Amino acid sequence: MAVDLVLGLGNPGEAYASTRHNVGFDVLAEVVQRRGRGEWLSRPGCEVAVITPGRMVVLARPLMFMNRSGGAAAALLSDFELDPQNMLVVVDDIDLPLGTLRLRARGGPGTHNGLRDLCEALGPDFPRLRVGIRGAVVDDDLADYVLGRFAPDESARAAEAIDRAADAVERVLQIGVEQAMNTTNRRP
């Protein structure tokens, strides 16, 4: 199945910009910038940008908090008459080392509350690209950790991971999830 909607998870507002938990937003911003489309359009509950890699693809960033992403995803899928299998979700993952990418065609939420909300709203059958955000030192309070910014010595690796994740999104749009898994899931 072709991916026609890419949903990047994050939290809205300047207070959360460039935090570990907003990697999904950052990856979509990179894809939009590469395509020369700098503007995000407002829709109820989200921002969208449209790109055309041979067909129309909607990139979306929900404007509610991460743990309530399921409602936004369900509304977008309904509005564009798509099945969850046609949506790629891009999300941070504290369980993966910084810079590691994992592309899967389906699966459970793991420890991620945003994915948990999506799975509760849509079921587990949607592709997801997890971007590892775990540095060498993790705070005891995981909420503070994921809502924090990358340490100075992690910034270059984080930027490189966002770039490679944007490459992975573009690969998925060109060749599909199953084929893109072969190159995306290799260790950097």
Describe it for me?
The protein is α/β, with parallel strands linked by helices. Helices cover 36% and strands 22% of the residues. A seven-stranded mixed sheet has the order 2-3-4-1-5-7-6, sandwiched between helices. Helix 5 packs antiparallel against helix 6. The longest helix is centred in the last third of the chain and has 21 residues. The radius of gyration is 15 Å and the shape is globular. The relative contact order is 0.20.
Note the main attributes of this structure:
single chain, 188 residues, alpha/beta, seven-stranded mixed sheet
Shape: globular
Name the strands of the widest sheet in spatial order.
Answer: 2-3-4-1-5-7-6
Estimate what percentage of residues fall within beta strands: 15-25%
Note the run of SSEs as H and E: EHEEEHEEHEHHH
Helix content: 25-40%
- Low-confidence runs (pLDDT<50, min 5 residues)? none
Query: Pairing-aware structural class of the strands and helices?
Result: alpha/beta
Mean pLDDT, as a whole number? 89
Enumerate how many helices there are, as a single number. Answer: 6
Please give the largest β-sheet.
7 strands, mixed
